[in-house]
Structure formats: structure tokens, C-alpha cells
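DM from R.C. (forwarded with permission)

"hey, sorry to bug you on a friday — could you get me a structure for this? deadline for the figure draft is monday and I only need the backbone to look sensible"
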Amino acid sequence: MPRPHHFIINTLAGSYTPERASSIVRLLESHGISVTVHTVTEPGEATRCAGRICAGEEHPLIIVGGGDGTINGVINGLTFGKATLAVTPLGKANVLARELGISSLENAVQRIVNGATRSPAVGLLQMERRKRYFLLMAGIGFDGFICETVRPSELSRLGKGAYLLAALRLFAAWERERLELYVDEMRVDCHGVVICNAAHYGGGVVLAPDADLFAPEFQVVCVKDDRRRSYLKLFLNTLAGRYPETPAVRRFSASKLVVTGRKGVQTDGDYYGYSPVRISCVEQLFRLIV
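My reply, with the result:
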């Protein structure tokens, strides 16, 4: 019996159009792959949809048509070790697609046809009684606040530009509260932190060049200094492809850490809540078509 293929499409994803979704289905069918289509409009709905699929089938293949938030929603609905995921990028930033080197929707479909898979390591973020997996990154502090305060009306009109406006508003109302990171016996005092499971961040920008989706550890980028100019300098260095170790920015590897203090938290680009949090690396949650 052919393996079941499911296509979860977010019809509100940043670059979704009915024509693009239909072309993906036609391309799959031209290679003899028929899919059951499920439409969703937000990550929570994608989580529930993936959960129903995993409850009903032993080893489903789930194709995600959407952006990084939709993918995050799907992985949080999976039953451990059961599913294989594929990506057809229809979002605004498509960080995972960039990480995998997917160049087009046609290229994404060809990878599904080829069927090569690997098992990524994912992050598990635990906050009080809640937990959430992330595949790309978790940010605590400045970028967590950006994701919390970005305005939906601006997001629909400006796309990624809405995050820049949110950042400018935060620059105007700057906060200086501190965080503390605990990694094994090490303690790090900082103003903000990004736990990177992938090299890319926010689209084509590379924040953590040594990060690897398939390695069981994170690359941690800590901004120790609470001055605005330290963030601006980090941003400009990152755009220029420079990753210096400075008194204001510290980088290191870790497979688990604890972050204390109370600041906004984002996972894979979507606001999730407030720290403190515990973060650890988890392997074998699912297979990913590469």
C-alpha cells in the first residue's frame, strides 16, 4: 500500500496563493504522489491537524505548505518518532527552506520525490507547565519583545518590515532588565539571548554560522551589554558576515541551558510567553526530507 501523504497548507502564509498551492499538488501528482489536502490559517490549527494525522496513521508523510511558524505548529502536533516532514516554502522568511538550500517550489517537490531524509535535533523549551518544540531558534529579550509587540495590521501590509517597525518602537522605549543563563557550571549575565539551532535568522541573514540542524547542540548568542548600540553593532556585523567575539557579545555551544529573569520569548519567529525557561536538545522527534 502506498505511504499516506498529507499536505497541510496555511492559506494565510505570507507568499501563499491558490495558484501556488495548486501547482504544488499538480507537480506531486505528475510524479505519482497523491495527497490529502488540509487547509489551516494559523500555527495552532496546524498543530491540531498534525496531531489528528499522527493519531490515525502509523508513519505519515506530512508536506507543509507555509512558513516557519506553520512548520513549528506542525512539529508541535507530532507523535514522537512517527512522522516524516517535507517543506514547500510559502512563508515570508522561509528560514528552514534557506537552511536546507531549497531554491524553488519545484526543487522542494523534487526533494519529496527523491525521498532522502535525515533526523534533525530540535529544541524543547519548557516554561512553567507549558512546553514547546522549536526547530530554528528561540529568542529571549529583544527579539522576543519584537515578536510580542509586532502589529498584525502592519504585518499584513508590510511583511518583514513590520518587525523593523516593532524594533524601532522598542529602541524608543528601551528596557535594561537582565537575564541569567546557566549552562552546566557556567553562569552568564546578559541582556538578551538567541539560542540558534539553525545558522539563518529572519530570512537570508546568518546569525550563527556554526549552527547545524542535525547536530545535538545549539549555538548560543548572548548580548551582554544593555546598550542599544551593542544590538545595532551586532546587526551590522551580522549583515556584513562578521562574527567577532566582543565584550558585548558572547557565543558558545550548549545542549541544555536555563534562562532566568522575566522577558519576552519567541520560538521560530512567533511570540510564546515570558521567561524563565529551560531549554534542551531533543533527537529523533521526526524525519525531515532534505
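R.C.: lifesaver. The chain is about 30% helix and 30% strand.
me: no worries. Residues 43-56 form the longest helix (14 residues).
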